Amino acid sequence: MSERDFLSLDDVSGGELSALLDDADAARSDPASFAGRLDGRHVALIFEKPSTRTRVSFEVAVTSMGGSAVVLRGDELQLGRGETIEDTGRVLSRYVDAIVIRTFGQDRLERLADAADVPVVNALSDAEHPCQGIADLMTLRAVRGGLDGVSLAYLGDGNNVAHSLMLGATKVGMDVRVATPRDYRPDPEVVARAHANASASGGRVTVTDAVAEAAAGAHALYTDVWTSMGQEQESAPRRAALEPYRIDASVVALAADDVVVMHCLPAHRGEEIAADVMDGPHSIVWDQAENRLHAQKALLAWLLASGSA
Ligand code: CP
What we know:
The protein is an alpha/beta fold. 41% of the residues lie in helices and 14% in strands. Helix 2 links the parallel strand 1 and strand 2 (68-73). It binds phosphoric acid mono(formamide)ester. The site of phosphoric acid mono(formamide)ester (CP) has 8 residues, from helix 2. Residues 51-54, 124, 132, 264-265 line the site of phosphoric acid mono(formamide)ester.
């Protein structure tokens, strides 16, 4: 039986995604019902980039479901001394039941997944952040009571978080609008996949450089840092280009009266989001952060359930 990996939000169907959101809601409302789901199971958590939320929420998710987590920084592994990612996957598969990894290129993740005999989970790559995407959709669904037809405007850098939001939201019938400067648009291949998802689900995708076009009447406004991990050398030109895409009170005023403001965190107040918006009445960022835990419990329980592969 081949294992099921989770490298992209495009790795699950719309039905599977909705079921994961239901399970995540159950993990939040009745945590005791998830205790014991990973009894006797071991999960390697590899972080080749820094993390606060993802690392802690995965470790707590595994241990609170009865499993054990082996948390490793990339520089603690022989990867740093030339062992291949494929050999690392083959060896870890002999010890653990799943590998969760935060890494760089999506190709590195795919090579690990191809070589490993256990499920591999993308805990953020340069291309996608699908675990964040599940928590985002869970959070928004709880606010709106459903996702079909719900509009979300993502403003800023067309990065990994934007990609996962586009792929996930279009699987569940949402109206996703992405406003970025021309030089920071999302990957055209991801945009094409999102359009295909939207055609199948009845959703909608708009990519524009106009903030007002994206934000008009939106049910949710979303942003992320302008300089992602590994892009620190580019931070000055990024700040200059992305300045008009900050979510501030003027952008909130364009959206629906009951708009919610989302951010995957960490946030840079005064850059991609104004402090009074981040800490204001529309913000649901702390629920979003909490839901990483519940969403990841649901994901791991599903991937490691006997018969799910
Ligand atoms: N949102 C997110 O992935 O946070 P961390 O980088 O702290 O894990």
